[in-house]
């Protein structure tokens, strides 16, 4: 957390809106990905980590000199979360670059999620209306006074899913939502907390990233995720043109669910391997 005053403004100045590139995300998933942050010079930082035994690095704030970049590739097998502008430069330098489709962030029009108009949202609107008819749900901003209620939802979600997943990161996010400047909404039925979402702005304030969305799953709550989606989008300020609901991680069921909400685009990310540039 001591690096936040230095890094948070830099992350907020990134135009692409990659969901990994926020201080909160790096901090909360530091154990899951074994993140380490090192300073290359006065402006550039490198984030290193490991996934499934594969060492990687990320350069959120720009590319260093070729010599430094080669040292990073020599030490780490792959460069991840590479935004399009960096990918183009690296491809021009002869490096092996490919799209990391499993980690594309899904972007949705905030207005679309509020209104759910047209045939493409017909099923979503039906589920939303069914939930509203069956439940009297109250939405509140997720302030610190409601933290314990949100933790109750998280624990119920965790029990239903048999533990694991992003539980630890989600719990810490609730515990530190004020110092991390995360915000969201919490939802009640008959006074009982049933769902919450938590995130932050990105892409120079044009997009809002949903980092966590949890709900108590019961048969009578069918349509609750459609309700959360619509209700939270409706209270977001209009300055947010899009809502970033992060990646599907290659999970086919999650991909179908995210695609069913008709994304208006993606925040594309690439992977890069080192390759010597040969002049022909």
Provide tags for this entry.
single chain; 280 residues; alpha+beta; Aminopeptidase; 2 domains; 7-stranded mixed β-sheet; 6-stranded mixed β-sheet; 10 helices; 13 strands; 26% strand
Beta-strand content estimate = 25-35%
- How would you characterize the largest beta sheet? 7 strands, mixed
Task: Indicate the CATH class of the largest domain.
Answer: Alpha Beta
Please identify the structural class as seen in this structure. Answer: alpha+beta
Distance between the termini: 49 Å
Total helices: the number is: 10
Give unreliable regions as ranges: none
What is the helix/strand order? HHEEEHEHEEHHEHHEEEHEHEE
Spatial shape: globular
Q: List the strand order in the largest sheet.
A: 7-8-9-10-11-6-12
How is the secondary structure organized here?
Layout: H1 4-12, H2 23-28, E1 36-39, E2 45-51, E3 54-58, H3 66-75, E4 78-82, H4 84-92, E5 96-99, E6 105-109, H5 110-115, H6 122-134, E7 137-141, H7 147-160, H8 167-175, E8 183-189, E9 192-202, E10 207-215, H9 224-235, E11 242-244, H10 252-259, E12 265-267, E13 270-273
Parallel strand pairs: 3-4, 10-11
Antiparallel strand pairs: 1-2, 2-3, 4-13, 5-13, 6-11, 6-12, 7-8, 8-9, 9-10
Helix pairs in contact: 6-9, 7-8
Notes on the structure:
With 280 residues, the chain is of the alpha+beta class. It has 2 domains: 4-104 and 269-273, Gcn5-related N-acetyltransferase (GNAT) (Aminopeptidase, 3-Layer(aba) Sandwich); 105-246, Gcn5-related N-acetyltransferase (GNAT) (Aminopeptidase, 3-Layer(aba) Sandwich), CATH 3.40.630. The chain is built from 10 helices and 13 strands. The strands form 2 sheets. Strands 7-8-9-10-11-6-12 form a 7-stranded mixed beta sheet, sandwiched between helices. Strands 1-2-3-4-13-5 form a 6-stranded mixed beta sheet.
